[in-house]
Design a protein that fits this description.
One of its GO terms (biological process) is signal transduction. By secondary structure, this protein is an alpha+beta fold. Helix content is 25%, strand content 28%. The protein has six domains: 84 residues, 2-Layer Sandwich (Phosphorylase Kinase, domain 1); 183 residues, Orthogonal Bundle (Transferase(Phosphotransferase), domain 1), CATH 1.10.510.10; 64 residues, Trypsin Inhibitor V, Chain A (2-Layer Sandwich), CATH 3.30.10.20; 63 residues, Trypsin Inhibitor V, Chain A (2-Layer Sandwich); 66 residues, 2-Layer Sandwich (Trypsin Inhibitor V, Chain A), CATH 3.30.10.20; 78 residues, Immunoglobulin-like (Sandwich), CATH 2.60.40. The longest helix is centred in the middle third of the chain and has 39 residues.
Length: 653
C-alpha cells in the first residue's frame, strides 16, 4: 500500500495504525498539497455489503462535524475494491500516550483537556451524533496541547424515527456506560459517562474498574460505584471529584443533562469557593414509590369476575373467668400494703439525687466556654483561650484559601462549647492558600487561555509583547514557568506574547563594498546575495551598483536582498550592434501559438541562458541588440518550439 495513489489524488506515505474494521495510513493530498490520514476498510471485510454500507453511512454522518476539537472528515469514496475516508492529520500523540507519560495530571491541566472534550462532544450531540466509544486512544493532541476527538466511525446519526439498535456497536469496556454494558441504548449521557472515566484516569493515572476479563469489568460498571478520586489524590478539591461522580452516576437520569452543562460546571470547578462543596450523592431509591404490582389471582371457590369484597369472619369473644368475693378482698389488701413503701422509697431517692447534685456543684470542676478565635492570629487566639481558663493543646497546620496564613481556622472542642477548666484546646492554624502546579501556557494562543488564567485567581496577570518567529498572539515565555508550585493569590503571572516576525526597512546599499555588506547582514538579520557584476563609469569597482528590492522596502528578518556590484569602467570600447530578424510562423496546428526563445552571447548575456522568450501567431520581426567589445564578436540564436530557425555570429567592425 505504501507509495500507492488512491483515486489518483492521495499518495500513501506510511502506516499510522489499525482498528477492528479499518487500517489508517498517512498520505498526501496531491491537489491541496497537505498531509491527511486515510482510513481504509479492511480487505477481508470489504466483500460484505452490509459492512460497506455501514462504513460509508457512518463516515458520511461525521462529515457534518466541523469543530476545533473534532478531527475533520474531508472526503469519503471508493477506488476499485478500496473503500476509504480521508481525515485531518493531527501530528502529535494520543491522550492515552500523554497520560502514560505525565499522569497523574495537575487538576488545572485535566480540567483544561476535559473542557475541550466537552466542547467537541457538545457540538456532535447538537448534530444528533453520539460517539459511543470515547476513550483516550480516540483523543489526539497536537503540539500546542489542543485535543481533538477522532474515530466517529462507530457513531451513527440519531433521527426522530430510529434509535441505535441494541447490539449495533460496542464501546471499549473500560470506558463503557452501564446501559451499554447491559446491552441497552446508548444516549448522549452515555458519552458523558465515558468522559467521567477519562477524567478519573487523567487525575490518577489509573482506571477505576479492572478485572480479569471484559465481562468482569462490565459487571463492575453495572454494580459498583466509581471509586472516589480523592482516595488517590487528597489534593483534588471536592468540587472536581463531584464532576466525576455526577458524570459516572449509574442512573443516567442523575448525570449531567448535556455536555454543555458539564462544560459550564467545569468552568468554575477550581474556584476557591467551590473547593469544599458537599459531596455529590445520587438520590437513594424511593422504596415507597408507586410500583407495578402483580394482578391478584382469582380466589378459590369464587366465580371468575366476582369483584365483591368478602364479608369478614365473625369474631367470638372469650368471657372472663369468674372471681369470688373473698379473692377480690385479698387483692385489695395487698395493694393497700404496698403504697407506704413506694412513697418512702421515692422520697429517699429524690433526696439522694439532690445531695449528689449539690456536691457536684460545690466540689466538682468549674466549667469554661471555649472562645471563638476563628480568623484570629495564633498568638492572640492562644491568649484568649488561656484567659478563659483553658489550656493549649496540639497545633496543626492546614491550607486554607479563606483564612490568612498564621491565623486560626478552627478549634477542638469547638467555639461555644462548655468544658472543665484546664481542658486542652487543639488549634488548626492556616498555612495559607495551598500551592498548585502552574500550567505551561507556552506555545498556546493567548486569547484561548484567558479563561484558564482567570480561574487560577492570580494576584496580577501582566502581558508583555515582543517580536519573534512564532505566530502573532502565541505565548512564547512565562514567569513563573509551567510546572512550578505557586500560590495564585500571591503570584504575578507574566506572559510574553509574540508580535510576529519583525519587519525592518531596508537600507540604501549604494556604494557599499563587500565588508560593509557583510556587516549590514550581521546587524540587520538580512541575507545579502551578490547576483552579478556590471561595468560602470560612475561607481568604483567592487561596490554596490544596484539592489533589489529597493531601499526603504519593509522586509522580515531573514529575507534576501540581491545586489549587483560594479566592475568599474570598461577599458575597451564597446560597439552596439542591432540585427533585425524575421521569425516565420509555421504552426503544426492552425492558430496554435509557437514559443520563441532568443539566446545572446555578448558582453551582457551568456549564450547558454535565454535572453528573451515570447509566443508568436504570425510572422514576426525582432530587433536583437548586442554589445561587442573591440576585437571580439557576438552571437545570437533563435529557437522556435525548441528548434533553431536562425543563428549568426557578428564580429566587431
Amino acid at each position: 500500500m505504501i507509495g500507492k495513489r488512491i483515486s489518483g489524488r492521495y499518495e500513501v506515505l506510511g502506516l499510522l495504525g489499525g482498528g477492528g474494521m479499518s487500517t489508517v495510513y498517512l498520505a498526501r493530498d496531491m491537489i491541496l498539497d497537505r498531509p491527511v490520514a486515510i482510513k481504509i476498510l479492511r480487505y477481508d471485510l470489504a466483500d460484505e455489503e452490509e459492512l460497506r454500507k455501514r462504513f460509508h453511512r457512518e463516515a458520511l454522518s461525521a462529515t457534518s462535524l466541523i469543530h476545533p476539537h473534532i478531527v475533520n472528515i474531508y472526503d469519503v469514496g471508493e477506488d476499485g475494491e478500496l473503500h476509504y475516508l480521508v481525515m485531518e492529520y493531527v501530528e502529535g500523540q494520543t491522550l492515552k500516550e500523554y497520560i502514560q507519560e505525565k499522569a497523574p495530571l495537575p487538576a488545572a491541566r485535566a480540567v483544561d483537556i476535559m473542557m475541550q472534550l466537552c466542547d467537541g462532544i457538545s457540538a456532535a450531540h447538537l448534530h444528533g451524533i453520539i460517539h459511543r466509544d470515547i476513550k483516550p486512544q480516540n483523543i489526539l493532541m497536537d503540539g500546542d496541547g489542543r485535543v481533538k476527538l477522532t474515530d466517529f466511525g462507530i457513531a451513527m446519526a440519531l433521527s426522530a424515527t430510529a434509535l441505535t439498535r441494541t447490539n449495533s456497536v460496542m464501546g471499549t469496556v473500560h470506558y463503557l456506560s452501564p446501559e451499554q454494558a447491559r446491552g441497552g441504548i446508548a444516549t448522549k449521557r452515555s458519552d458523558l459517562y465515558s468522559l467521567g472515566i477519562v477524567l478519573y484516569e487523567m487525575l490518577t493515572g489509573k482506571l477505576p474498574f479492572s478485572g480479569e476479563s471484559p465481562v468482569s469489568i462490565a459487571l463492575k460498571h453495572l454494580h459498583e460505584e466509581t471509586p472516589p478520586v480523592r482516595d488517590e489524590r487528597p489534593d483534588i478539591p471536592q468540587s472536581l471529584e463531584n464532576v466525576i461522580l455526577k458524570a459516572t452516576a449509574k442512573n443516567p437520569a442523575y448525570r449531567y443533562p448535556s455536555a454543555e452543562v458539564m462544560l459550564k460546571d467545569l468552568s468554575t470547578v477550581l474556584s476557591p469557593e467551590r473547593r469544599d462543596e458537599p459531596k455529590f450523592m445520587p438520590p437513594p431509591p424511593d422504596d415507597e414509590a408507586t410500583k407495578a404490582m402483580p394482578a391478584i389471582k382469582d380466589m378459590p371457590g369464587r366465580p371468575a369476575g366476582d369483584t365483591r369484597v368478602p364479608e369478614p369472619a365473625p369474631m367470638t369473644e372469650t368471657p372472663p373467668e369468674p372471681v369470688t368475693a373473698k379473692e377480690q378482698e385479698q387483692k385489695q389488701k395487698r395493694k393497700r400494703k404496698k403504697w407506704p413503701w413506694l412513697l418512702a422509697g421515692t422520697v429517699i431517692l429524690a433526696a439522694l439525687v439532690g445531695v449528689l447534685l449539690y456536691l457536684l456543684g460545690v466540689f466538682g470542676p468549674k466549667q469554661a466556654e471555649v472562645p471563638d478565635v476563628t480568623g484570629k492570629p495564633a498568638e492572640e487566639a492562644m491568649s484568649l483561650i488561656r484567659d478563659a481558663g483553658l489550656e493549649i493543646g496540639g497545633q496543626t497546620e492546614e491550607h486554607s484559601p479563606d483564612v490568612e496564613k498564621g491565623s486560626v481556622i478552627r478549634t477542638s472542642p469547638g467555639a461555644g462549647s462548655l468544658n472543665d477548666e484546664g481542658t486542652e484546646v487543639d488549634l488548626v492554624i492556616s498555612a495559607g492558600e495551598e500551592p498548585v502546579e502552574l500550567t505551561d501556557f507556552t506555545g498556546r494562543d493567548y486569547d484561548s487561555i484567558s479563561e484558564i488564567v482567570d480561574e487560577f485567581g492570580f494576584k496580577n496577570v501582566r502581558k508583555e509583547e515582543e517580536y519573534s518567529d512564532e505566530p502573532e498572539g502565541t505565548v512564547i515565555r512565562q514567569e513563573p514557568e509551567g510546572g512550578e508550585k505557586i500560590v495564585p493569590s500571591e503570584t504575578e503571572l507574566v506572559l510574553t506574547v509574540s508580535k510576529g516576525i519583525e519587519k525592518i526597512s531596508t537600507k540604501d546599499l549604494s556604494g557599499f563594498d563587500e565588508d560593509e555588506l557583510n556587516e549590514y547582514a550581521r546587524t540587520s538579520g538580512f541575507n545579502i546575495r551578490i547576483t552579478a557584476e556590471k561595468p560602470s563609469d560612475s561607481v568604483e569597482a567592487g561596490r554596490v551598483l544596484s539592489q533589489e528590492p529597493e531601499a526603504g522596502t519593509e522586509l522580515e528578518r531573514g529575507a534576501t536582498i540581491k545586489v549587483v556590484l560594479s566592475k568599474g569602467a570598461e577599458a575597451d570600447p564597446v560597439k552596439t550592434f542591432i540585427q533585425g530578424v524575421t521569425i516565420p510562423y509555421e504552426p503544426s496546428e492552425e492558430g496554435a501559438a509557437q514559443k520563441v526563445t532568443i539566446y545572446i552571447g555578448d558582453l551582457s548575456h551568456k549564450i547558454e541562458e535565454p535572453a528573451e522568450e515570447f509566443e508568436i501567431t504570425e510572422d514576426t520581426t525582432k530587433r536583437i541588440r548586442m554589445e561587442i567589445k573591440e576585437g571580439g564578436s557576438a552571437t545570437y540564436r533563435i529557437e522556435r518550439d525548441g528548434k533553431t530557425v536562425a543563428e549568426e555570429t557578428i564580429p566587431y567592425e
